[in-house]
């Protein structure tokens, strides 16, 4: 019974941080603007990112002298830019309409972003790796199902409603990016942490 409770909690944590339901209007917005996505590529790359950081995240950061807070800070800036594009209806990136957006920004940072990665790493301190893996696999299956049916969802949503949802989730994403930025910048600029981060 305790294992079921732990699994449900772990699953919901990962589900909420990936937030594929919240990201669906963002992805639909890209499709409406003529961009293309490759669902299999998104699932494969997102899974690789998740598994890499779940098992090798700490080693990766140590090898390159990167800390998790700086990584999250960089990701928050990317999310900030994406949210502004959604709210203002502009594109900061010069991407061809026929271009694939499966890698950036969908696989990273929308699905396997800094928030998801840091959450996975932190979960290892409180949950068994088997529970985390099972929760992650089920969440990936849900993401796959939503993305596979995204065209159907797109056709059923009126452009006017889509724009409303897009701006609404843009504001939510903007709020999340600011929260992520502030939390990590506060940690980095803590006097003791600055000394630790700049050590060779």
Automatic annotation (TrEMBL):
It is found in: Cell inner membrane; Cell membrane. One of its GO terms (cellular component) is plasma membrane. It comes from the Bacteria. InterPro entries: Multi_antbiot-R_MarC. Its main location: membrane. Pfam families: MarC. It is a multi-pass membrane protein. The chain crosses the membrane at residues 6-30, 42-62, 68-90, 102-123, 129-147, 168-190. The keyword Membrane applies. Coiled coil: none annotated. Keywords: Cell membrane, Membrane, Transmembrane, Transmembrane helix. Belongs to the UPF0056 (MarC) family. This is UPF0056 inner membrane protein. It comes from Karelsulcia muelleri (strain CARI) (Sulcia muelleri).
């Amino acid at each position: 019974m305790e294992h079921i409770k732990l699994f449900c909690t772990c699953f919901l944590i990962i589900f909420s941080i990936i937030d594929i339901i919240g990201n669906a209007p963002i992805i639909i917005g890209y499709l409406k603007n003529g961009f293309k996505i490759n669902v299999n590529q998104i699932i494969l790359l997102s899974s690789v990112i998740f598994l890499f950081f779940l098992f090798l995240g700490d080693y990766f950061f140590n090898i390159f002298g990167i800390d998790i807070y700086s990584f999250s800070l960089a990701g928050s800036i990317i999310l900030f830019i994406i949210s502004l594009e959604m709210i203002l209806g502009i594109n900061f990136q010069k991407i061809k309409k026929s271009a694939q957006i499966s890698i950036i920004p969908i696989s990273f940072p929308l699905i396997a972003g800094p928030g998801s990665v840091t959450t996975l790493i932190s979960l290892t301190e409180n949950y068994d790796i088997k529970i985390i893996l099972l929760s992650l696999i089920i969440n990936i299956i849900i993401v796959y199902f939503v993305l596979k049916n995204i065209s159907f969802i797109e056709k059923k949503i009126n452009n006017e409603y889509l724009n409303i949802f897009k701006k609404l989730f843009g504001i939510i994403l903007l709020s999340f990016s600011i929260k992520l930025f502030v939390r990590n910048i506060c940690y980095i600029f803590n006097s003791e942490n600055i000394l630790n981060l700049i050590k060779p």
